[in-house]
Amino acid sequence: MSAWGRDLASGRGVCKIGRPLLDDDFAAAPRYATGGEGHLNRGPSISRSSALQLWAIGMIAPIVTILWNVFRGGLRSDWAIFWEAGRALLYSDVQPAKAIEFVYPPYALLFFAPFAPLTYAASYVLWNLLTAGFFLWAALRYLPKDFPPLLAILTPGALMCMHFGQTALLVGGLWLLAFRGSWASVALLTFKPHLGVLSALSLKSWSAVAKTVGLVLILVALSTAVLGFDAWRDFANHLLSYKSQLMERRRWSFVGVTPGIAYGILGWLPFALAAGLILMRNVNAFTAATAALLVAPYGFSYDMPTASLGIGLAIYAHWHELGTVRRLGLMLGFLVPTLAGLGVWWMPPILLWTLWVQVGLEERPKQAVTE
Fold this sequence. Notes:
Distance between the termini: 45 Å
Radius of gyration: 21 Å
Number of domains: 1
Oligomer: single chain
């Protein structure tokens, strides 16, 4: 049996939210088995029940949206950009960045080119299955022992990602591996440059930093050798054009969640600063994932599988211990991928509120937290 299998079989599944399981975690199980006086057995069941109810509520809007779009016009989504980029690489003399609006570094094509020979519909379904499976696999070591694993890919953020055919499940899996000590995952995350930089918070030694930089340089060299320097120039031009349109695309006002999209650069700065200061109190995979949505220049409802999972796990483990203010912060944060349709302007304050609650859960004494 694998090490992971032994961990799960032994019940070693109770951990601080946001970091992988360690050998001492099973011994710490009473922390989650009690919820203060009068809640010895009932408290955790209240948390689990509340989490499952919120999970069900959060699933409704994404599933209805997916079904509506399928019946209305098929599966056309953001995945078309990635699929067409792979096809341009394999079957066209035109650089992918010239043929379409491809705003990722050239080595990102390594992820998408294998899907180019398939039809659009087949590649869309296969991409979602593979990235969802990868995210679930990467998340297993973060899940409590009694947590239904499939729920990790049924959060509002994960479902929105699958609906759009986006990259966030792949990114989320790499992010979770990075915070388990995988420097190679940090290097691969640089295909979204701002997340590559933020995930470097997981690196614990200078040797890991050096190996990460070395792998990034190898990826750059290989992509340059295959695609030429023009590919990098086209990437830079598209990226600058993309960021200049953050406040101009009306659609983004109803799928965006970040302060940069909501308020522009001047509104982004105070949120980014506040998120950074809060995050400094406790950096782990899930607090960093929520903070990334406030620090990054742009982000959307479909970019939230990791943040949604972290918030959901906090509800699952701690709901019975919390007062109304903290419960509301977690609940709204979990539902942000669904609530984003109401307008991006509401999302940054909610996410900052949620981050404050998440960080506070790791800092508080073991007794119940009340308001």
